Amino acid sequence: MSMGYRVVIPARYASTRLPGKPLLDIQGKPMIWHTWQRAQQSGATQVVIATDDQRIATVAEAFGAVVCMTSGDHESGTDRIAEVVGKLGWHDKEIVVNLQGDEPLMPPLLLDQVASALRDRPAASLSTLAVPLQDEQVFDSNAVKVVVDRNGMALYFSRAPIPWKRGNFEVKKSDAEGMLRHLGIYAYRVGFLKRYVDWEPTPIEQQESLEQLRVLWQGEGIAVDVADQAPPPGVDSPEDYQRLLTSLA
Fold first, then answer.
1. Per-residue pLDDT for 2 more than 90?
2. What distances in angstroms separate CA 117 from CA 112, 122, 235, one per listed residue?
3. How many helices (H) and strands (E) does the chain have?
4. Beta-carbon neighbour count of residue 246 at 10 Å?
5. What are the Cα distances from residue 189, in Å, to 74, 110, 242?
6. In the prediction, which pLDDT does 17 show?
7. What's the confidence (pLDDT) of residue 22?
8. DSSP assignment, residue 87?
9. pLDDT tens figures, 55-110
10. Alpha-carbon distance 5 to 16, whole Å?
11. What's the CA gap between 130 and 183, in Å, rounded?
12. What's the confidence (pLDDT) of residue 3?
């Protein structure tokens, strides 16, 4: 059933840690095919692969995907998606979900959920998902934390433990109860993407190295839902790729 949103899958060949990542073999198919299949199984009305590399475009078109060629100068997937919505002429009120090309096991229901989270909150410019934080992730800077208000809107994202549990954290005692870990899946309104590309990076974004803080800095709202299920890890490194292959063996 159509959920009234589109999916764009940014896919770069020139990954620093794992070059050619979208074309890596997983059970006889390239990674980008698996990610595309997940999106096809969601409620999206259209799925587009956005890439700056003809090798990826050729493979994607061969298995039937819609491909949009984009600039090689984009610093983030959000910038690449903004180019896609401009090229394809999508309306400002439409919702677009960003599914990274290195998420071949993303549950389709989470794409529906993040799109619904934005549709249900007219005041938000984008939405994202979170899961309960685990104790071993409290002091892990790679596990991004998020604090929300009573309406499920983001107050802040950080690589540091937030909220700071003064009695425990000062003695380095892990206590993740009630804390949330941010998942890197987003839904945007097209009109927001058109504004976003004109914004310069902000101090807090650069200090935390978290792109979503640019949005809060500008005073725009980010809706946060707790995911209906935790997705498997994406593929960022050769070690991640080997773990994925082992898990599927």
1. no
2. 9, 10, 25
3. 9, 11
4. 8
5. 19, 17, 36
6. 82
7. 95
8. H
9. 999 999 999 999 999 987 877 878 889 999 999 999 999 999 999 999 999 999 99
10. 31
11. 5
12. 59
In the three-class reduction of DSSP (H, G, I as helix; E, B as strand; rest coil), residue 84 is classed as helix
* Contacting residues for 248 by C-beta, under 8 A, at least 6 apart: 26, 27
Mean of the per-residue pLDDT values of the chain: 94
Long-range CB pairs of 158-166, under 8 A, 24+ apart, other chains included:
158/208, 158/210, 159/208, 159/209, 159/210
Can you tell me the distance from the alpha carbon of 170 to that of 164, in angstroms, rounded to the nearest whole number? 9
Other beta carbons within 10 Å of 180: 22
Looking at the whole model, is its pTM more than 0.90?
Answer: yes
Distance CA 211, CA 38 (A): 25
Are the C-beta atoms of residues 88 and 96 closer than 8 Å to each other?
A: no
**C-alpha–C-alpha distance, residues 157 and 180, integer Å:** 10
**Host H or E run for residue 137:** none
